[in-house]
Structure formats: structure tokens, C-alpha cells
Amino acid sequence: MPHRQEIRPDIDDGIDRKVLARLRARFLQINAGRLARANEALSSRQQLVLRLLPLLFHVNHPLLPGYVSASAPAGLCGFEPDEALLAEAQRLTRSFSYRPRRGEGPAQPIQGLFLMGSLGTLAQAETSDLDLWVCHDPQLPEAALAELRRKCAALETWAATLGAEVHCFLVDPQRFTRGARDARLTSDDCGTTQHYLLLDEFYRTAIWLGGRTPLWWLVPAYEEGRYAEYCEKLLSRRFVREQEVLDLGHLAQIPPGEFLGAGMWQLFKGIDSPYKAVLKLLLTEVYASEHPQVNCLALRFKQAVYANRLDLDELDPYLMVYRRLEEYLSARGEVERLELVRRCLYLKVGKRLSRPPHNRRKSWQRLLLERLTADWRWDQRQLARLDSRSQWKVRQVAGERRILVNELTYSYRFLSQLARRLQVASPLNERDLGVLGRRLYAAFERKAGKVEFINPGIAPDLAEDTLTLVHCPAAEDGESLWALLPGSLGARDWQDFAPLKRSRSLVELLAWSHRNGVIDASTRLTLHPGTSDLSEAELYKLLDSLRQSFPMPLAAVEESALLQAAVPREVLLLVNVGIDPLKAHSQLNVHLTSERTDALGYAGMRENLVQSIDQISLNSWNELLVSRYDGPNAPLDCLRDYLAALPAEGPRPNLRIRCFCRNRAPAIARRLEALFSEALGHFGATPPARHLVQLRQEYHVLDLQPGQVGHRVLADLPALLGYLGEPRPAFSPLYLDSHALGHDELALILPLGRPDGIQVFYRLHGEQAELSVLDEHNSLWRQRLPFHDEQSLLTPLHRFLQSLLYRRNASLADPTGGSPLEIRYHRILPAAPLRARQVERIEPPETGVSNPFYDVQAILEPGPGSRLRVTLYCDHREFSELEHGAELYRSVARHILARRSGGEHYPCYLTDLDLSRLLDRQAAQTLHYLRYKARLEHALNQALLKGYRGGENAAP
Predict the structure, then answer these.
(1) Which of 15, 153, 361, 810 is the most buried (most CB within 10 A)?
(2) Which residues pair with 467 in a beta bridge?
(3) Has residue 787 been placed in a domain?
(4) In total, how many domains does the chain have?
(5) What are all long-range contacts of 219-228, with beta carbons under 8 Å and residues at least 24 apart?
(6) Rounded-to-integer distance, Cα 417 and Cα 407, Å
């Protein structure tokens, strides 16, 4: 039953002008309330700016702010200043006297003034901008528009002198309704990539300051679909006068391309300011999930006004956003994402509820936020934690980063899938998507040797006053590690504290501390060198070298750099860190008195004084990478990799070589500089061109008829599968003879291999399913898994393959230079044991975050001998052999089991894998990743199984 004061006008039955007047009055009532709230949060000088703006656009007076010429457009439609406002203007200049304007049209070229954005909302802060839309007569000539722009600029300058940051945006209503505009329309606008979403924000946040009021107010939400017809009748039948209303368009439909444009823009901003971006990103996700029937917030706002629900708090734009996101996430059961939204809103509002208000008077914003946090059941401890964000250090920031990066990477996947699913034409083309993907990759993706940046706009300063640096045995037998701990700890005390960071390499630990600002010039370090030869003097010289080579903060990455493969820009080589080279060659000390001895092989001996080289490089994507070279071959191994990384064209990186060890440090650094200089000199002005090896494409035809040569070997299924599962240097088509016996399934799938894609097949075998994958080289990989349903079977593999392609794209010279591999899915029918007769193409599975497959990432690196070093990240929490040793898999299993409510028993799947230190990028193929994935998952699931049974950890 409709509310007794609800208004439901029907244009076909005739509309009472009094009804339209009542509707307009309701919108103006809300407008007046928001304007009062906006003024409440402004200083008296800022309030003066806000009050005077309509008058200053209405008149041209040489002594008033904003005057540029007598011909500048002035005159605000329907505006008449009251005595109080005129008195304000006369206080600025006593010679001013107001003469009322007569008539409409050209005499009043300013059709409307509107503030939009956070002013008057829950999120208004002292630093909030005043984004002012200046809607003008569409017939203004270009010369008059130029004068109006000058007037706007002058008003912005004047407002700044009074502490108000005003941004004026000229709006031609006719061009705007067609989606045509030449510039940004807010200080937080991505330009022309969105129109309807900007209009949605305008209608639900705008504060009317003067001029015509929006015609959209007078069109019921249920008539939005025939907006033009409804407006035409309102005007032609003179229910409203054209001079009283401003038409900026409707919100009946939002093109899906706008979701991509707006979402990608917010993702771009979220890399540096994630809290601000999450709310808008999620709102974009909500709208996109409703497409094509999008119930946008502006329409909900209008429906509430028509229903006479005029509570200013409930109609607050930010509260409306929150309520919509809460509704969406609660329905999906995504509790962690909802908590993130609440934190983002709380931090955006910026009222520290754990502390008393400054003037002991609670603002309306604070009162509303108190009600919200009470509904969320936040306690004083949680409020205090958020209110102390400016003092957050490594531990708090690392935990928050995990959740924020999860959200941003999920949003990128969501938008990428949306683009593929809808196949929409977006103002952001494939090039823009590729560039943004690379920005996200460079900022957040983990890979071996990459120094992780943990503070993307979460806390202002992570620097510690005092830290302790310790060299100690690792959990692995025979290995050692470096650990960084907070505070100044004694030699017997540090073992009782958990490190902030561990690393096998001291330089990697120092690079991480420098990149994240954990150690700055004022940090005092306590050193416990253990079995190393590191001295305090060497330690501080290492830190100075990092500061000189890689000054922080880093400059923003140019888009042109992201359109090419990453190349090194700055390279620092640190030699013999924490090592006295003479200890290894003590028997040769007799030769070391001469400066003429060669540091790379002095006195004719094979040994050299370079025992280790740590290379730190900053590439063109702002990735900081660390590599270590040990042993007598360290100089040549480092030189080889350095030359291989040089760009084929363009400038070489700036190379610095430093050595601070106790003996012969200057001579060692000079000798390495000579070695690198000589090697580079052999190549002339540019590095050597890459040798392109053209691989002959081989066609493998397997004829398995009985009696043929090779039948006894290849007709045996394990032998055949072993052959098909071998790596290949390039794509090779594979066929089975159509009369091959017992290989019906393979005969169906092998011809479907393609060099431009990865083919995934599954077939039921009772309560199990057999997964088969033909990769881009046509190598076959198989795995048998329990089958519950198609979605749960394919989703983990799909997420893994998507991550693999994401990494592969980052290594391409141009993000749009090559066709991305397509993942195609197929179902083999009928189920076994019947003869396979048909391959049916199916849609890829959905990979939302509401399923139990949260992120489990692995990084594999070569260890001593043939061992592999494994580091696992479960929900972005690091589990390394350094910390857990042989208990690695058991520790991860315990963490996973703790995350599962109700003791659910289902497998764990890897979602991402980095093999960059194991495989040559040119030779790596999907098969390699799937093999390592299966091995790691087996070890994890064995540990999980024993965890359920209370057994011991599984061996990998």
C-alpha cells in the first residue's frame, strides 16, 4: 500500500501543477538541508565564498571578485539576491550597488549552478573541494565562453585566498545530454569514459545554488524509460515553463562500457589510494552485476523523495552507497569484503570516535557514524586501531594490504571477465586494459626476487625509530637467514620476538626496508652479525648506497614505459656483503700486499676475491628486483644475466658497483667495473641483437593400428601419455589414426589443439572426473579428481590459468602486440566406460570470490644442489621454508583449516605460481606450470588430510 503522502503523477491523465510544485519543494527541502550541513563544516571565510558564488556569476562589477571584462557572460536564471547577500557584497566593495536584471534568455546566460561531490555529505572534510557545475546557455559563442572560462579561473583564485578550493566546470546542457563533452566535470573525473555514471552521481549528490532546477526531478522513476516523451509533454502542455528547468538527461539505461571505463579508472586510482577507490569500485561491480536492469542510486533517491521519505541521514549520498553495498555483499555472504567497505567508509568520514570531539560538540556526521558503528558492533579497541592509522607500522599495514590487494585484484578480474562476457565497446580499449593490467602487476604481483611494496596509501610513515638486525640459523638444516626485529634487542633477547621480515639475503632485507621506508636516515640499528663478517660501518654504507641509487619515493611510471616490456633503469651491484674474502684464501695472504694483484684471479691462482654479488635493479615499471650470485663464478654469472637483461634499443641502465668488505674493497670494485666496461665495449654502442632461432614445426602422426611398427610401445596407454606429455619447443599438431583401438578419447581431443589457446577437457569416470589440458605447444597434461559438479571442478584450474596468462602478458613487449591465449573448455560425452563420441564446447566457469577457493600462491626458486626452495602465500600471508623448514606444508594446512568453518573437508588448489627463477621465459610453457601445480597441491592436500585426522605433516 503506497505511503499516504506518496506522489505518483500520471502524465496521460493530466498532472496538477500543484503536485509538481510539491515535488519540487521536496527536492528543494533536501537541498536546503544539505546546504546547511555543508556550511556547518566550513570555516566562516569558506561559507562566505559559498554564499557569494551565485551573486558573482549573476553580476559583472569591476571591483567584485571574478571580474574579467564588461563583456563576460553574467546573469543567473531566475536569481534575485536578498538584502543579506547584497550587504555581504558591499562589505567587499562599498561602491557596489545592485541593479535588478529584467527578462530571460541571453541576458541570463548562466542557466544553473550546482555543487557536486562530498560537500554536505557524511564524507565532507575540511579539505573537501567545491566542484561547481556552471551550466550555461548552449548558444553562447566561443568568444563568450572564453570570457566565462577566464571569469571562472578568477573566481577559483579568489576563493583560494579565503581557504576554499573551488573547481569550476562549464557544462553545455544540450551537448551534455548527447554525451559530448570536452573536459573533466569533477576533480575526480576520468574524462569522457563515463557519462551516465557521472550523471547518476550528479543527481544524487548535487546541491543546487541557483538558476534552473533539474527537469529530471519531475519525471517519476517508473517513467525513466520514456523520459523524452514524458518531458516533451510536461513542456508542451506547459505544466512547467522551459525557463524554469534544466534538462541534463535520464538514467533509463547505462551502457556496459561505462562500467569498464569507471571501474578501470578507479582501479588506477586505487593503486595509490585504495581506501578511496574501493567504495566506487564496488558500486561499479553492483551496477554491472545488475545489467541491463540497473537500479542506480539516483533512481532510488528519486523514489524516496516521491514516497516522501525525506530523512537527510538516510538520503545522504555516502550512506546510500554503503546501504547498497551492504545489501549486495550480505546477499552473497561476503563478510570480509563488507568489513572492508565499513573500514573504507569510516576512514573516508575521518571522525575519530575513540577520541572526544575537538569542541565537545558532536557534529551530525559524528552522531550518524556512531549509530552506524554501533550497528556494526565495533568495540572501542577496533575504533582505536582505525583512529591510529597514521601511526600504523609494518605489521598493521601488511595485514590491511592483504585485504586491499585482494579487493583490487578481484575487481580487475571481474572487469576483465565483464568485458569478455558482454563483448562491449568500451571507451577504454584493449590497449588501456593492458596498460592498467601492467600497472597492477607492477604494483602488487609477487615473483621471485621482487621486493614487495606493502604500503599503497595505507599509512603515512612506516619508519621505525630503532630496529635490530640479526644473522642466525634458519629452520632449514645448514642454512642461515637475516631477520629484522622492532626495537633495540640484546643478543639474548631477540629470540623471544617475532621478526618483521626474514630473508636469506641481507641485501634483499635491506632493499625491502628501504623500498617501504621501514629504515630511514634517522633509524638506529642494533646489529648481531652472527657468523657473518658484517660490521656496523659496512651496514650503514650499504644503506647509503641504496638511498643514493634508489631515492624514494619513486616517480610515477609513464604510460609509454608500460607499453613496452620492463627493462632495467638503475642497477646496483654490492660485492662481498658481510664477507671477508681473505678468510676463504688465507693461505694466499702472502700475495695480498701488492695492489697489482688481480681481484678476479690474482697471482695466477684460480681463486678470486669476489665471493658474492648482490644485484639490485629498478626497472622501467618501478619494480625493485634483487638477485644473488655466490661462489667463484659469481662475476661471470652476474655479467651474463646483466647483458641478457639489456634492452635491444634505448638507453642502458645506470650501473653502480660498490664494495665495503674489510679487505681490498676499492680494488675489488674497480676490477669489477673494468670487467663490465670491457664486456660492454665489445658490443659497441648498442647491446647485441637477440638471436632468433626459427624452429621447424614438426607434425607427429601416431598410427596405432595393430601390426604397425611401434605398436607395442605406443599402443600402451601410459607410454603414449608419457610421449604426449613431453614439453615441445613450439606448437606441433598431433593426430591419432581414426582406427586406433582403445584411444577414442584421445582421438577426439588431440585434433583440437591450437597454438592460440589452451584447451581444457573433462570426462566423468563414476564419481571422479579426468581433466585433460592441451597447452599452447600441444603438450598434454592429465589429472583425475573427485567430481561434485562442473563449477567446483573447473573453477580452480580456471583461476590458475588466468593467473598464468596474466603473468605471461606482463612479459610481452607490447600488451596488445600479440593475441592473448584463449582458454577453451569442453565436456567429453558420454561418460566412461562408454566409448567417447562427442566433444561439447562449454562456457568458462565463473570465478567470483564467494566460493571457497581463496588465493594460494607459490614461488619456486632453485636451492642448493637439485633442491627447490618453496615459498607459499595463503591469502597473502607468507609461509617460507626459512621460518617453517620441514613443517612448511603442515603450517599452511593448519592456517587453511583455521579458515574453514564447520570442519569442511575439500581439497586445496593453487591459484598462482611463479617459476621465473626456474624456467627460461622463452622455453616455459603451460605444461611446466601444471606439473609443478600438481606436485605442490599433492603435498598440501596430504598435509590437510593428516590435519583432519590429527596426523603428522606430509612430506612434499
Answers:
(1) 810
(2) 486, 525
(3) yes
(4) 4
(5) 219/250, 220/8, 220/9, 220/302, 220/306, 221/299, 221/302, 221/303, 221/306, 223/11, 224/250, 224/251, 224/252, 224/299, 225/252, 227/252
(6) 15
Residues 74 and 198 in one domain: yes
pLDDT in tens, 214-239: 999 999 999 999 999 999 999 998 89
Q: Are residues 367 and 313 in contact, defined by beta-carbon separation less than 8 angstroms?
A: no
One domain for residues 620 and 735: no
Average pLDDT of every residue of the chain: 85
Residues 775 and 833 in one domain: yes
862 three-state secondary structure: strand
Nearest to 189 by CA among 121, 129, 233: 129
Q: What is the 3-state secondary structure (H, E, C) of 672-703?
A: HHHHHHHHHHCCCCCCCCCCCCCCCCCCEEEC
Q: Which helix (H) or strand (E) element contains residue 747?
A: helix 744-749
| Same structural domain, 576 and 484 | yes
Last residue of a domain, one of 649, 681, 713: 681
In this model, does residue 699 exceed pLDDT 80?
no
Q: Give the torsion sign (CA, 235, 237, 243, 245).
A: negative
Neighbours of 76 (CB within 10 A): 26
Cβ–Cβ contacts within 10 Å for residue 685, how many? 6
pTM of the model: 0.84
pLDDT 10s digits, 595-648: 456 777 644 445 678 899 999 999 999 999 999 999 888 888 898 889 888 887
What's the number of CA atoms in the CB half-sphere (13 Å) around residue 593? 1
**Does residue 449 form part of some domain?**
no
> 386 near 373, Cβ under 8 Å?
no
Angle between helices 335-349 and 317-332 in degrees, nearest 10: 170
What is the per-residue burial (b if ≥16 Cβ within 10 Å, else e) of 42-65? beeebbbbbbbbbbbbbbbbeebb
Distances (CA, A) of 477 to 182, 474, 481, 865, 884: 65, 7, 11, 14, 11
Rounded to 5 degrees, φ, ψ at 914 are -110, 120
The domain boundary residue, chosen from 246, 268, 300:
300
Q: CA nearest 644: which of 618, 680, 611?
A: 680
Pair (574, 620) in one structural domain: yes
Question: What are φ and ψ of residue 416, in 5° steps?
Answer: -65, -40
Grid coordinates representing 918 are 626456474
Task: Find the farthest-apart pair of alpha carbons in the chain and give their distance in angstroms, rounded.
Answer: 112
Closest to 910 in 3D by CA, of 884, 952, 873, 956? 873
Confirm whether 777 is domain-assigned.
Answer: yes
Angle formed at CA 390 by CA 387 and CA 394, multiple of 5 degrees: 110
Instruction: Specify the 3-state DSSP secondary structure of 431.
Output: helix
Number of Cβ within a 10 Å radius of residue 183: 10
Whether residues 757 and 900 fall in one domain: no
Task: Give 436's Cβ-side CA count (13 Å radius).
Answer: 25
Domain span at 579 = 466-586+606-681
Contacts of 298 (CB under 8 A, 6+ apart): 199, 200, 201, 202, 203, 204, 251
**Does 185 fall in a domain?**
yes
In contact, 758 and 823? CB cutoff 8 Å = yes
The DSSP letter of residue 558 is: P
d(CA 92, CA 53): 13
Residue 591's pLDDT band, with cuts at 50, 70 and 90, is: very low
Summarised one tens digit per residue, pLDDT across range 426-467 is 545 667 777 888 888 898 889 999 999 999 889 999 999 999
- Helix extents (H) in 783-886: 790-810, 881-884
Cβ pair 638, 525 in contact under 8 A: no
Residues 673 and 818 in one domain: no
Whether the bond into 833 is cis, omega within 30 of 0: yes
Q: Quick one: 470 and 619 in the same domain?
A: yes
Tens of pLDDT, residue by residue over 761-812, are: 999 999 999 999 999 999 999 999 999 999 989 999 998 998 898 888 877 7
